Amino acid sequence: MGPPICHPKGPIMTGITAATPPDLSVIRASYLAQVQRRRLYGSLTLLIFVMLMIAGFNIADDRNAGGFWAGLGQIGDYPADVLSEAWAKRADLPVLLWKFVPALIETINIAAVSTLLGAVAGLIFSLLATRGLAPWPRLIPVFRRILDILRAIPEIVIALVLIFVLGGGPVPAMIAIALHTAGALGKMFSEVAENADLKPVEGLSSTGASWAQCMWLGVLPQVAPNYVSYGLLRFEINIRASAILGFVGAGGLGYELRNAMSWGPGRFDEAAAIFVLLFSTIVLFDQVSSRYRNRLTEGQMT
Amino acid sequence: MLTIDALTKRFGQKIAVDKASVVVDRPAMIGIIGRSGAGKSTLLRIMNRMDNATSGTITYDGTDVTGAKGAAQRAWQSRCAMIFQQFNLVPRMDVVSNVLHGTLNRRSTLSTMFSLYPQDDIHTAIDILDRLGIAEQAAKRADALSGGQQQRVAIARALMQDPEIILADEPIASLDPMNAQVVMDALRRIHEEDGRMVIANLHTLDTARRYCDRVIGMRDGRIVFDGRPDQLTTGVARDIYGAGADFSESATSTQISTLAKPGRPALVPA
């Protein structure tokens, strides 16, 4: 990467070298060499990337039952079926929408409860895993690995195991999403907490406050807007996640959608109604939370 | 050459620039002075078309550039380079790459995304850096440089655009007096050697006096003075800054000689 920016013997050497500044052609040559090297690395990366793309595509295409290119022409068939049937029965749509509102509420409930539980767990873990705040600094790596593991296991895997153990229903989905949320939020929370000012904490601990008091009264007021903002973002994500977990038997809108879709023609109007509900709910919460998050982060600046 | 006619910019109720009219018939070094909030920056930003005027026109060589859109707008922007108070370089990229950004308007988006600049351009960039006395810094990252060096990289980027006009928005306001002098000398040299028009917002009177052929004074969005530096008497300066009789010119100075004067009066808020 070119000449070192700061030579270890800098102060002594400059007195001698400053008198004879390096020749312009030397600067040109060394910069061009640097550019060549960078381009070489860049094109190698690009080459590897392209090869991975081609190889990955070929493997996927070989394994695919129908073949990608053969199936490409039929990609619009299923949506066309659903849409035409839903359009034909469009008069029933308001009734169907109303029918699925309880399932929608169940889905949102799962998301809300799991976000809250996950956020509380994430909060505790994040403070335990943040350098400068943790009560047991030696255990920081342990708590970080726990967060990593919680984040690494997909919700759907935890949900499948729990459904096998506990039986179908919203509780396994809730636990699964809460665990994943704890891992994801814990990581984000601890990144925010790392940037918190430690002086208030020092001030509080000088009064004889306990660790929990220092965190609650010294750190949380600083990080609260960011935490709420991340929590809202996670809530949006969890609505989607809880709808998907319905597919594996966790109840809510996803469960109804799977039933409607696997039933095939004849109940496509129900599938369409569920799509409409799910889509508008996600858009609604997305809009509401993004407005609220904007206000939180803007309020922080003023 | 450059004609600004009744240029007005409104932000809601507030008028930032109020019917400003300027005619420049040959390349000159022009300084714009005035208090902060007088509309100097807005005027420059409208000239570069980073902001749009509410009304009025800017004409250059017979072409109205006030309403230019898309490619025409970007072509105009590449003809009138801008230099900022905070340098506005890309910190994580090396100095030469930052200078090469001056060619972005001429090159295709795809090739610049992969930093594929022609070798001639790279040579030109290093030559410009050498002209500004910072060729040794060529391979360093922009954020590893001092403020004065960064501002010279920004000037090099502007020169790389090969512009007819250089707009400088408070180019020395965040520099120490030594570096301020180096940067102003560079701008003056560019005007004299290349014959480019330089329009600079300056926050100090003495810099305007020392470097500019023509000084424009702005107050509350209006142009209240337009003339040669020697016409800029203390009385006129008081008018421009809206200051009372206690106004002292050295209070706005950053020049070393003025600062070193014994018995310098304390900064009096205007």
Report on this model:
The complex is a heterodimer of chains A (302) and B (270). By secondary structure, chain A is mainly α. Helices cover 78% and strands 0% of the residues of chain A. Chain A contains 13 helices and no strands. Chain A has helices at residues 10-17, 24-63, 68-72, 77-88, 93-99, 101-128, 140-152, 155-166, 170-194, 199-205, 211-245, 253-263, 268-301. In chain A, helix 4 crosses helix 13 (268-301) and helix 6 packs antiparallel against helix 11 (211-245). Residues 1-19 of chain A have low confidence and may be disordered. With 270 residues, chain B is α/β, with parallel strands linked by helices. Chain B has a single domain (2-260), classed as Rossmann fold (3-Layer(aba) Sandwich). Helix content of chain B is 35%, strand content 22%. Chain B has helices at 40-47, 70-79, 95-100, 109-113, 119-131, 147-160, 177-194, 205-211, 234-241, 256-260, and strands at residues 2-11, 14-24, 29-33, 55-60, 63-64, 80-83, 165-169, 197-201, 214-219, 222-227. Chain B has a six-stranded mixed beta sheet, sandwiched between helices. In chain B, strands 2-1-4-5 form a four-stranded antiparallel beta sheet, covered by helices on one side. The A-B interface holds A 1-3, 5, 21-22, 24, 27-28, 30-32, 34-35, 38-39, 42 and B 94, 96, 114-116, 119, 122-123, 126-127, 130, 135-136, 138-140, 144.
Indicate the structural class of chain B: alpha/beta
Number of strands of chain B: 10
Total DSSP E strands of chain A? 0
Domain count of chain B: the total is 1
Uncertain segments of chain B of ≥5 residues (pLDDT<50)?
259-270
Oligomeric organization of the protein chains: heterodimer
Task: Set down the secondary structure blueprint.
The complex is a heterodimer of chains A (302) and B (270).
Chain A lengths: L9 H8 L6 H40 L4 H5 L4 H12 L4 H7 L1 H28 L11 H13 L2 H12 L3 H25 L4 H7 L5 H35 L7 H11 L4 H34 L1
Chain B lengths: L1 E10 L2 E11 L4 E5 L6 H8 L7 E6 L2 E2 L5 H10 E4 L11 H6 L8 H5 L5 H13 L15 H14 L4 E5 L7 H18 L2 E5 L3 H7 L2 E6 L2 E6 L6 H8 L14 H5 L10
Parallel strand pairs in B: 3-8, 3-9, 6-7, 7-8
Antiparallel strand pairs in B: 1-2, 1-4, 4-5, 9-10
